[in-house]
């Protein structure tokens, strides 16, 4: 069995400092692969417990813009290869994509830009999406030739369907649920041929969600969004055994505004 967890840590230093936070979660998890997003630190700025946690091989890809983005992958097994970025010059050093090769599997950690309608941030998000979709197609084709599967984990910052966020009616003009963003996700699944693994196991909604704003009573009211995904090539998706979102029991027990998405596969 292969268990993979993915979580946006909302700042790895802050998440590591919290009582019963990221450090304790890492020590307790049974995952074989952990993908982190929004790390927001260079390796030299991280405490040793998360920079080089015992029992893990770690790859960090930080952003050249200090305090922004950053993705990491932790694996129990030493990777056969590591690649940072996806061939886009603009986003090569943005800390938004890293992938590793494991036996029979390419696993990636993705932090897609969040966007903000009517601002340069939304334009950045659109440019990223335009560049990233062809890469997904290319990576899937290459993996097929090599007899490999592909798994892209991370914060995609898009809720695909109405069942993926609580207040979908009020967010149709907001970044993360724009019609053009949702149509792009359709292309990831239909055109590029990937599978939303969590929805394969749990096709009904609404929810469960993976992100809740810190503002107001969003968490207590479960007014959340499902924007964290594990998206796989069909061969791997067919091997899914269990999928869950590790939602904290209480607001006070949270160490990020996201919860880990943890999926077990019958692989290899």
Automatic annotation (TrEMBL):
Its cofactor is Mg(2+); Mn(2+). The record marks 258 as: Interaction with DNA substrate. The keyword NAD does not apply. Residues 6-258 form the Endonuclease/exonuclease/phosphatase domain. The record marks 157 as: Transition state stabilizer. Probably binds two magnesium or manganese ions per subunit. Pfam families: Exo_endo_phos. The keyword Repressor does not apply. GO terms for molecular function: double-stranded DNA 3'-5' DNA exonuclease activity; metal ion binding. PANTHER family: EXODEOXYRIBONUCLEASE III (PTHR43250). Belongs to the DNA repair enzymes AP/ExoA family. This is Exodeoxyribonuclease-3.
């Amino acid at each position: 069995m292969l268990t993979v967890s993915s979580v946006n840590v909302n700042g790895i230093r802050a998440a590591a400092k919290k009582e019963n936070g990221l450090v304790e979660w890492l020590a307790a998890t049974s995952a074989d692969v952990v993908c982190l997003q929004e790390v927001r630190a260079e390796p030299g700025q991280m405490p040793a417990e998360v920079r080089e946690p015992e029992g893990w091989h770690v790859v960090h890809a930080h952003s050249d813009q200090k305090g922004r983005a950053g993705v990491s992958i932790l694996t129990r097994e030493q990777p056969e290869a590591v690649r940072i970025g996806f061939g886009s010059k603009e986003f090569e050093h943005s800390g938004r994509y890293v992938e590793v090769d494991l036996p029979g599997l390419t696993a990636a950690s993705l932090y897609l830009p969040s966007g903000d309608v009517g601002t340069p941030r939304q334009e950045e998000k659109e440019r990223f999406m335009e560049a990233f979709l062809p890469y997904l197609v290319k990576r899937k084709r290459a993996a097929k030739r090599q007899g490999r599967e592909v798994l892209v984990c991370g914060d995609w910052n898009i809720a695909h369907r109405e069942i993926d966020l609580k207040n979908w009616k009020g967010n149709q003009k907001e970044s993360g649920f724009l019609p053009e963003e949702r149509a792009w996700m359709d292309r990831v699944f239909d055109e590029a041929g990937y599978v939303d693994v969590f929805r394969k196991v749990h096709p009904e909604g609404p929810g469960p969600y993976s992100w809740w704003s810190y503002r107001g009573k969003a968490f207590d009211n479960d007014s959340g969004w499902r924007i964290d995904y594990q998206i796989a090539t069909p061969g791997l998706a067919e091997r899914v055994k269990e999928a869950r979102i590790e939602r904290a029991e209480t607001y006070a027990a949270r160490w990020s505004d996201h919860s880990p998405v943890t999926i077990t596969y019958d692989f290899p």
